[in-house]
Amino acid sequence: MPPDDETTALDSDLIAHALGGSPLPFRLLYFPALDSTNTYAMRLPPDEALEGLVIITDHQTAGRGRVGRAWEGFARQQLTFSLILRPPFAANWLMMASALAVHKAITGVTGLAAAIKWPNDVLIGGKKVCGILIETSGAIAVIGIGVNVNGSLAHVPELAARATTLEDEAGRPLSREALAAALLLALAEHYDAMRSHGDAGREAVRLAWRDRLNTLGADVCIDQGQTQVTGWAEDVAEDGELIVRRDDGERVLISWGDVSISD
Ligand code: BT5
Question: In sequence order, what are the residues at sequence separation of 6 or more whose Cβ sits closer than 8 angstroms to the Cβ of residue 85?
Fold first, then answer.
């Protein structure tokens, strides 16, 4: 990655301007650096955690993944933000809607082919380009999204084999502002459909998400820490759980874990 001074700070006004007319009342709170946008959002007092508030930073120094893992930040290269919502439905629908929105924004802005690894990593050429962490507290849901946009991970040994950036894949740097606007607009559109059209709206999102999963119809291993499940990924259930036909023939529902596709 080039040093900070060769890169440009994120223009959050440009993003805010592009979000006009969206069904969500977006408001952006920009920080040049922050430990974790999710941590910041989760610590807000309830009367400040308003629907549509986006905490966005140019340099996340202690980004969090699932189950206590870390998300590596690269100053002024990534898109790193958390969106606060107050959904009238369960958070699993946000997991599907947010992965779908990231997929749509990445393919739309870059023209690259992308896939979703169940439940919500977005991959290009099999390598992770985006991670999503959704946390809830009472009525509040925080959707944290990190996308590797510019620079290269080729010289980051711990990530190079499994992760990539949009610039590495597209062969050109990309506008983080354009990607942020496309992503937030797509997410607002899916959220609004799920709110306004009830079950039908949510089912449309689920099917679109399901269509983009690279996990189905493959032999998989699901790592759940102490437990590993191996089998054939048959489908996803109505609420997004992964349906796996285990090697012993039994059909099990998987609600969390890290999936790898067996060769
Ligand atoms: C995730 O967790 O992928 C969720 C990452 C969410 C990050 C966003 S950024 C904004 C918001 N604020 C936060 O503090 N977090 C959210 P998980 O599925 O557990 O994957 C974590 C694993 O991904 C790590 O153990 C690494 O193997 C890998 N990883 C870490 N940094 C990465 C990066 N920059 N690009 C690709 N892979 C990475």
Answer: 51, 52, 94, 140, 141, 142, 143, 191
> What are the pLDDT digits (tens) for 166-190?
999 999 999 999 999 999 999 999 9
Percentage of residues of the chain with pLDDT beyond 70 = 97
Ligand 1 pocket test: pick from 39, 71, 133, 142 the residue with the most ligand atoms within 8 Å of its Cβ.
Answer: 71
DSSP string, 108-151: HHH----EEETTTEEEETTEEEEEEEEEEETTEEEEEEEEE-SS
Domains of the chain as residue ranges with CATH: 4-210 (3.30.930.10), 216-261 (2.30.30.100)
pLDDT of residue 221: 96
Rg (C-alpha) for the chain, rounded Å, is 18
For the chain, give the mean pLDDT.
Answer: 96
**For ligand 1, what atom is nearest to the CA of residue 38?**
12
Residue nearest to atom 36 of ligand 1 (CA): 163
Residue 4's pLDDT band (boundaries 50, 70, 90)? Answer: very low
Phi/psi zone of residue 77: left (φ > 0), alpha (ψ -120 to 50 degrees), beta? Answer: alpha
- Per-residue pLDDT, averaged over 34-43, amounts to 98
